[in-house]
Amino acid sequence: MTHEAASPGFATLAIHAGGPAAASPESLFAPLTNGVSLFGLEGFGDIASHGTSSSNAMLEERIATLEGGTAAVAVASGRAAQFLALHMLLEPGDELIAGGSPHGGALHQIGEAYQSFGWQVKWANPSKPASFEAALSPQTKAILIESLSPATDVTDIAAISAVARKARVPLIVDNTLATPYLIRPLEHGADIIIHSAVKCLGAHETLTGGLIVDGGSFFFEGDTRYPLISKPRPEFGGKVFAELFGNFAFATACRMLGLNELGPSLSPLNGFLTLAGLETLALRMDRHSQSALRVAQFLLGHNGVVQVNYPGLPNDPAHALAKIYCPHGAGAMLRFQHAGGYHAARSFMQHLKLFSRLDDTGDTRSRALHPASTTHRYLDDVAKEKAGAGSDVIWLSIGLEDVGDILADLDQALAKA
What we know:
Blueprint: H1 10-16, H2 35-39, H3 55-67, E1 71-75, H4 78-87, E2 95-99, E3 120-124, H5 130-135, E4 140-146, H6 157-167, E5 171-174, H7 179-182, E6 192-196, E7 210-214, H8 227-230, H9 241-245, H10 249-262, H11 268-278, H12 281-300, E8 305-309, H13 319-325, E9 333-338, H14 341-351, E10 367-369, H15 381-386, E11 393-397, H16 403-416
Parallel strand pairs: 2-3, 2-4, 4-5, 5-6
Antiparallel strand pairs: 1-7, 6-7, 8-9, 9-11, 10-11
């Protein structure tokens, strides 16, 4: 029996992409030995190491391959990835449309810290694509959404991409919780992807890191609204990134004008640890999704639970979108409402034994969070409800333990609450 050659599968690419076996003279990421070519914008590579082979360079090629992008840039953290991506696009007075709640979650700092840069933020509802169009103005320079949010909502990327295309602005998608294994945003109209590597990609909380992936789909050349990419750069002899680098001009600008100038570098050790995490990504995301579905089904039938939200459940509001965007599974996150209210939810948390009571997601270990008394405690009741963090709500991130042990721990904690 013979097997015909075919394109490598996801798990194979997660182990081998960017490694020596994948190298070729035509590779965008091939090692550059001449530092002059890098500083002269004649190649794409890590200036700090003068383009020599490194774990970070391999990580960049691997995540770009897995996401289907043209190039990637590794940085120190997920927040650094978000900041550098926006720094390339926004000037003082410009507007960003952010999908989600301004209260908590991965987008929380946008409404606060970025105000000092003169970046204005408008909030839109990810479940209502029309709200993004309503928020558009001549000052809009980018739209930022999460593919899968901590509140277990699946975003209709294609519908919001249509709004971004109409306005001719880039759509940035935070793909941290879904990973490219569950959702590939570029295939649904995203232009740029960002990741926090500490969560699902790295998986073991042994690292910090962030990634920016250029989809190569946004045409910057001649678009004066984005001067860092489309106008001559005096520090590089008047060269124009969009003209020189084409469909990976954004990634090059992030590296040369962001990473190189502002310095949030990813340590080689953290790059190496992220690569190690990627090698088991497909296996882990399958296990996360299968176990989370089992947990959701268990909680759905428990008399101590009022409501369960998990996109993998057929009756969940996000289920229809989950079937479109993440057919391999709906990830590790779910939430439920405790029938006993605030104090019972607190008691439930105190009786957990296997679950860690920490604000972490996508880890190998199962985690539980009562946001109303921790991460969202200073919000009023209305804001908590909007953020999916009502007084009786528990957020769970289901790990890789035996699912029977996970269910047993939840059952005993519910019985004692």
